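Rather than argue in generalities, we reproduce a single protein record, letters for residues, whole numbers for local backbone shapes, just as it appears below:
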Amino acid sequence: MDSKEKKRLGRVRIGNRLITLFLVSELAAIIWLIVSFIKSGFVETWKEHWGKILLIILAEAFIFFIGMIVINVSSKQISVTSRALGFMMGWIPVINIPVLGKIIGATGREYSFEKNKLKNNLKRADEQLCKTRYPILFVHGVFFRDFKYFNYWGRIPAELEKNGATIYYGEHQSAAAVRDSAGEIAERIRKIVNETGCGKVNVIAHSKGGLDTKYAIARLGMADYVASLTTINTPHNGCEFADYLLEKAPEGLKTKVSGAYNAALKKLGDENPSFIAAVTDLTASGCRRLNEEMAGYDYRANGVYTQSVGSWMKEAGSGAFPLNMSYLLVKQFDGPNDGLVGEPSFHFGEEYTFLENKKSKRGISHGDMIDLNRENIPGFDVREFYVQLVAKLKQRGL
């Protein structure tokens, strides 16, 4: 894996240098042409230097297209918009400066960032920071599944495995009531323990997955098989804005939306999806009912270490669609939030971590916490965050 990554980064660097060379040489050629036109006029300049001009154009075109092709097949941090604008406007003098400048900057940062990560992992390889006593079980949130070729957790699992972690996935349906999802997760935990003899698992659960796993432990007897539960951006107290939406939305609209979602989720593998049941259990009122069912359960007394993590988007622009839209709505009901869940709802367990990204205006969204967009966020390295999170579990002997 590291060998492939080194080769990829090498190509990113080559592409970056080619586009830089193109931009610099283009500006030099333009200056030369302007000076020549001023001295000799357009006609005389063309008569005297037409061969040289055509050669420059061909050479520039070659450098530009080779550079763009290399970047497009190698870079993982260039947006679709930048790729399209690069090809459409990158060859237009002067106009291309901001477009190509953005691409050069992004690929330069990608090369430096990923190269440092490779060096860091190589340096600490013998430490096996994430080689915990019990394997990690990742539990996904609502409306997603564990797919083989599109990992819900982005680049995070691979980073943990590089540092010694053993990883499993929940493999439960994407949309169901908490009680039903909890039953699936309990069955999955038993299967892992029985087949591997690992004894227990350390669960890291995102969003609704945290509610599902809590219920599996507190109500379905999973405490004997769970060493720790770490919830990531889980709405432990629900979402007030979800109550509002369900209350205000016409029945016809809810039926239509639910039907469309359920049909799509069946095609993705769910046997019996229930959009309404899943959303209802994420409301503040739904979570109150669930919390009443689990009231009084002592995770610590039953041998389960618990902790929670939450994050703050800061502003709508910090998240991709639809979180950039929902952020403002959630803010009205739940205050500081990650685009879906308000900060007061994140709290659970013996320890709580709230991530604000103090080094950048760019906040951290609900999706960022699972590396949904595979984006290197200035001021927050999500992969390293999980490495340190799991390393602390190891330090606890878990």
